[in-house]
Amino acid sequence: MNCWGCILVPALNKLNELSSPSPKSRFVELSEAYQVLSREQSRRNYDHQLRWATPPKSPGTTAHPRSAHQTHSSWTDPNARYWAQFHGVRPQGPESRQQQHRHNQRVMGYCLLIMLAGMGLHYVAFRKLEQMHRSFMDEKDRIITAIYNDTRARARANRARLQQEQQQRQQLQPPPGPPPGPGIVPPGTSP
C-alpha cells in the first residue's frame, strides 16, 4: 500500500464514524482525487481547470458519467449560474468569428437603415404638418382680414352716415338767437 492509501483508509474510517450519509461515494471521490493528483500531467490539467473555473475532470469519470456527477458534487463553481447562461453559445473559431462579425455588421446596417428611414419619415411628416399648419393659419388670417376689412368699411359708412345726419340736423335747426319770450333782463339794461 502506498502513502495515499494510508491517508485514504483512515479518512474512510473517520467518515464512517461521523455517520456520513454516503461514505462510499465520498471514498470514491477521494480515490479519484488521488488518481488526479498522483500524476503530474493530470495535476496540471486540474490546476488549469481550477484557474478557469471549470469543473475538474478526472480520468476515471469518462467511463461512468453518473459517477462523474456524483464525484464532483462537493466542488461547486462560484460563478456557475453566470456561466450557465452561455452554454448555448457556439464555439468561437476564426471562421465563426468572421461569420458573427459579418452578421453583426449586417444587423448594424439594418439598424442604421431603419434609423435613417425613421428620420426621413419624421422629416417628411413634420414638413407636411408645417404645410398644413401654414395653410390653416393662412385661411384663418384671410378670414380675420376679411372680417376686419368688412367691419372697417361698415364703420366708415356709419361715420359718414352719422356725419350726414348731423349736418342735416344742423341745417334744419334755426340759427341760435335770443330766446323767445320773457326773459330776465339783467339790471342796468333796458329792454
List the SSEs and their pairings.
Layout: H1 3-17, H2 23-38, H3 40-51, H4 65-71, H5 80-84, H6 94-172
Model description:
Helix 1 (3-17) packs antiparallel against helix 2. It is built from 6 helices and no strands. The radius of gyration is 54 Å and the shape is rod-shaped. Residues 60-72 have low confidence and may be disordered. The chain has helices at 3-17, 23-38, 40-51, 65-71, 80-84, 94-172. It has 191 residues and is mainly α.
Which stretches are poorly predicted, pLDDT < 50 over at least 5 residues? 60-72
SSE string, helix = H, strand = E? HHHHHH
Evaluate the radius of gyration.
Answer: 54 Å
The mean pLDDT is: 76
Structural class: mainly alpha
- Please bin the fraction of helical residues: over 70%
Strand percent estimate: under 5%
Gist of the model:
The protein has 191 residues and is mainly alpha-helical.
Question: Tags for this entry?
Answer:
191 residues, mainly alpha
